Amino acid sequence: MTDNVTRRSFLRTVGTAVAGGAMVGTAASADERAQTNKKIRILGLSCSPRKGKTTATAVQVALEAAAKVSPDVETELIELAGMNIPVFDPGNPNKGDFATLEPRLSDPAVAGVIIGTPVYFSGMSSLCKAFIDQCMVFRKNNFALKDKVAGIVAVGGVRNGGQELAIESVQAALLCQEMIVVGDGNPTAHTGATVLNDGKDDISGDEFGLNTVRNLGRRVAEVALRMTS
Asked: Which of 5, 28, 65, 126 is deepest in the core (most CB within 10 A)?
């Protein structure tokens, strides 16, 4: 009986010490972050060939949600519309305007990326595909996108217009870059943000879709902060 009591007392003591140590460790990390005030950046990339339309709007909504997570989160929207992003040809490399994006994406301060694409025939846009293929350079350059957090927004002309298929095709490519791919967070919590364009270049009436966009932006920011803490 005495042995059992002694053993229980020992386990309680060890458990308390471990819990206390974990709490101290967490507090130290929070204090360290407060002292360094380390900012992180999340880039939003609109891969629609139409500048300032629904895909760009959706990505901007996601970025606004990301920025609300913490004052340490900075955001930036980049529209690929109007840029010359050539088809990737490994035998005849031509980066075009992608050369200007390369250092911005590989910047260590960039902890997260939100990619938006319109849905064309249940897939990503050709501009999005060209952009992703040009990212091959990062696989040859020490996996510069590794451990950056990524989330995908897809905008379709109907509710079930292939948004999830487009999202998954982009996600598959980003997994090859060893990125941390996340979906939209609770309470929607699926593969990513699925948005409906009402045919008049307006997504404001799609409250469900906008909720997935906000949840995605928040989720990208939350995970990015954890990865950099």
From this structure: 65
